[in-house]
Amino acid sequence: MPSIFSYQSAEVDWCEGNFEHSTVIAEYYNTEWAPRTSQASQACARIELCSQKLSLLLAGIFSTYFHMTLSYVGQLLDELSILWTLAVAYAFWYPRIYFPKCIKSRKHFFWLSGVTTVISTLMSFIKPAFNAYVLNCIAFHLLYLTWRELKKCNDKRVHRMAAVMVVWWVLAISSWISDRWLCGLWQAINFPYFHSFWHVLIAMSLLYCCPLVIYFDVTYEMPSFKPKLGYWPSDSWPVVVPYVALEEPHKQC
Ligand SMILES: CCCCCCCC/C=C\CCCCCCCC(=O)N[C@@H](CO)[C@H](O)/C=C/CCCCCCCCCCCCC
Ligand SMILES: [Ca+2]
Ligand SMILES: [Zn+2]
């Protein structure tokens, strides 16, 4: 019986051919691009930002290990690190106004997120190949929340950043699905690399998602600050890094 650590013991195998470019790396291009996800993270100035940065870093490392080995353990680590990254984001930044009625404080919501994530972690061993679909569905909830927030917001910069985030995400999820479902077609034309595109495109989407999450959080939790979305080095450059800046309104006296 093969060990859960052995090469190709995972339940899924992505479209890219295995061991075509190296004898130790199963999927060369997917392994190459997997760590890019971690680069979407932000400055580590507060405990919540540090934990998010750490969990994204782990997601990048485990994803690299998964594509390198295609092992069962690699697959589970990859999926569980995404689950816990999402859990950290929800626990810290889920707006209070959307809390279920029975939850009275952020501390209670923390517990709810923790218990739900522990149960989901245990359930994820049942059918690991199914987990990735469930994780992708969480993005639909993030889209719904974004839409609810945009309805209340008149700032054109926020609408623009959300639109760009959604475009990157649509491209990302299309690449992920086409690698999963249309592999025969991509192999026939000798271009089985759509999963590696997913890694880059989801990182781009997260790059726009992070400032937006902080923007909405500051609006709710630090009302004395006025958050402003911007692009480095300048709005008009073709290649930019989105950011959020906090301005404290001048006190009257
Ligand atoms: C201030 C910062 C707030 C940030 C909040 C964002 C929280 C992001 C949480 C997790 C993102 C991790 C996604 C990285 C995935 C990398 C690993 C990977 O690609 N694994 C694949 C196999 O290699 C696996 O098949 C993928 C499974 C599905 C993952 C689904 C992730 C959903 C992430 C949602 C991103 C939101 C972007 C905006 C959507 C509107
Ligand atoms: Ca493969
Ligand atoms: Zn991957």
In short:
This protein is mainly alpha-helical.
What does this structure look like?
Its cofactor is Zn(2+). The chain is mainly alpha-helical and 253 residues long. It has one domain: Up-down Bundle (Rhopdopsin 7-helix transmembrane proteins). 60% of the residues lie in helices and 6% in strands. Strands 1-2 form a two-stranded antiparallel sheet. The chain is globular. It starts with 27 loop residues before the first helix and ends in a 6-residue tail after the last strand. The mean pLDDT is 93.
Topology:
Blueprint: H1 28-33, H2 47-69, H3 72-93, H4 106-123, H5 128-151, H6 156-181, H7 183-188, H8 194-221, E1 226-232, E2 241-247
Antiparallel strand pairs: 1-2
Descriptive labels:
253 residues, binds zinc ion, binds ligand L2Y2AEV6, Rhopdopsin 7-helix transmembrane proteins, 2 strands, binds calcium ion, 60% helix, two-stranded antiparallel ribbon, globular, N-acylsphingosine amidohydrolase activity
